[in-house]
Amino acid sequence: MAPLTIGLQWLITRAVAWIGPWRLAEVVDVLGWAADPALEEILKVAPLIIVAWLWPRTSGQLGLVDHLLVGAATGAGFALAEGVLRYGQLDAMAIAVPGGYLAGATLSGAIGVPSIWASLTTWLPVPVSYDWPAMSGAQHLVWSALAAAGLGWFIRRGSHRWLGLIPLVLVSLTHANYNAAHSLSGMAWSSPALSWIEQRLAGLLLVVLVVLVLVDRVGLAGARRSRPELLLDGERSDGLGPWPLAKVAVRGAPWSSFVAWRVVLERRASLNAQLAGVPPPEFADEVEQRITQVQQSADRARWAGAAKQVAGALSLRGLRSWRTLLWVLSVVPALLFLVVGGWPATRGLQELAGTWFGAGLMLVGLAIGWVLLATQLPALVRQLRQQSEPSLHEQRIRPAFQLATGVASLVTAALVVAALVVGGDPTQRLVTNYHILDALSSAELWLGRAIILLAFLLFPPAAALVVTTAGTVLLTSSGVALAVGSVVGATLVSHALLNAASGSGTSGGGGGASSGSGSGTASSGEVRDVLRNLPQGRSQGVRVVGSGEELVDLYKRLIRGGKPIEVPSYKGKWSELPDGTRIGLRDFSKSGHKTIDIKFPGGETGKVHVDG
Question: 3-class DSSP state for residue 483?
């Protein structure tokens, strides 16, 4: 949400300065503590508000602790954005010291960047410490976590829901007080009482976390008692007896552990939705089926066979494409200047980034990444629109968040490039007289370009996993981004493993290994699974894959166990499955590529084209 916050703050400060008699610097200084804190806190929890508004069944799957953790992650990311914009570029003072790096100094004390180890071993890590060597004041993480916890209460708690607004008001006031205490115009307005509260918010967060864990667990225990069919044999409804679940998890570790984790996640999401008053019956039925399958998968040999079957059916051909190469090239400049060059010993690389040579490298990377990202956004939109309701929260929320990141990256990249063209200096400041702790006024244009390039790491071009009920796994390069493929793929792979280990969903039965084309005989159900999980094409009823090679590989998988048939008028070859499903492959179509034609016994048809 940092780009949106930046945009709104820029518009508000410029509008107020234009309307009134005040200078821009005065407006920025006053609004920095009088208005911006509340704006930032609202925008940091805005993703959760949007999810609750657009997809209430998905939002209902999140518990109170889930809201708190999402808020903490959002706040930590916001603080990291500020820290990178202000101290992502090394100056002459930057030196290595025990526990991190000194990045500067002010009248209030030394400014330090903690080392990776120091961050990992700190309860509430901060990207930048303004009272080094102490690492106090993880403000954004704490503020956003408490505000999001209050939002979760507001969404789920009926007549007492308005109590959930108290944390948002409290953190907005303490945030405003913190900014006022560090502002010339706000010092006289700062409150000792709010300063006292602000210093104790980190401890309050721990108390709130413990309380919300207890509230969630009590609620889930009641939901389990009302749905005993979702419990394993011997499992207690209060969740205090982990042994039945532990036995399942270690039967065929690590595969059974992964599947047990995914099934428990789905069960918890279903029960949370029931508590929130938006029970998804189809989703709960699927969870019940998974629980039954878990109990049937007691044979360690079956788990080993299931892993071989799923891994053997995985095609990595989609990774070997020109899109993957271009994606790697697009992020190399950012990794070179910000990661490799982000240490005192390698500061020369950052000095190179401020030259026109470095600017040229990053502009090439931006152009490549911009094109690849722009071509992936339609697939992300289609993925969100096709996602069945209800479904596991991760399958909708993560792609939606990634889509927002992609749009913000495209717009920001265009603005930064425009600033370079107009200003003509790679080392000019992004913006002057600004807020978000004046971080942008400390950042040079090259740093903005490098940060945008790092965002492209979230959008590798080859990552769409498709798993059928028979355990067949496909990896396409259709332009669907990794976050979509990994989240959806993790669920589907766990289902495929479970189907194979429990002996259900496959024609071949057992847990033996399969060939690269899968095992057993394909069926209309498996064909429908594949079509449902492939990206939607431009026309109704058309699905797409990334290349002609993937299309041929898909055809071979779909006709397993079928027999060739003659269709005189068809310019290609047909195969018919035992259940009557007909699958054809022709070399030419209106799109100029090979096409798979599918005719189901009931008369329904489908097509698979090459994307583009």
Answer: helix
3-state secondary structure of 414: helix
The closest of 126, 72, 85 to 2, measured between CA atoms, is 85
If you ran DSSP here, which 8-state letter would residue 344 be given? G
Q: Is 59 exposed, middle or buried (0-12, 13-18, 19+ CB in 10 A)?
A: buried
Strand, coil or helix: what is 352?
A: helix
Q: Are 466 and 486 in contact (CB under 8 A)?
A: no
Q: Are 515 and 560 in contact (CB under 8 A)?
A: no
> DSSP assignment of 159-183, as one string?
GGGGGGHHHHHHHHHHHHHHHHHTS
Which helix or strand (DSSP H or E) is residue 607 part of? strand 605-610
- Other C-beta atoms closer than 10 Å to the C-beta of 153 total 21
What is the DSSP pairing of strand 605-610 with strand 542-545?
parallel
Buried residues in 237-247 as b, exposed as e (16+ CB within 10 A): beeeeeebbee
pLDDT tens, position by position, 516-573: 344 456 677 778 777 877 777 777 778 888 777 778 888 888 888 888 888 877 888 9
CB count, 10 Å around CB of 121? Answer: 10
Whether the CA torsion 499, 502, 508, 511 is positive or negative: it is positive
Q: What is the mean pLDDT of residues 256-279?
A: 86
Task: Give me the pLDDT at residue 520, please.
Answer: 52
Which are the contacts of 1, defined by CB distance < 8 A and separation ≥ 6? 43, 44, 46, 47, 74, 78
Reduced 3-state DSSP string for 525-589:
HHHHHHHHHCCECCCCCEEEECCHHHHHHHHHHHCCCCEEECCCCCCEEEEECCCCCEEEEECCC
Please answer whether residues 235 and 260 qualify as being in contact, where contact means their C-beta atoms are separated by less than 8 angstroms: no
pLDDT digits 0-9 by tens, 61-104? 899 999 999 999 999 888 887 777 777 666 656 787 888 888 77
Q: What 8-state DSSP symbol labels residue 340?
A: I
User: What is the predicted pLDDT for the residue at 459?
Assistant: 59
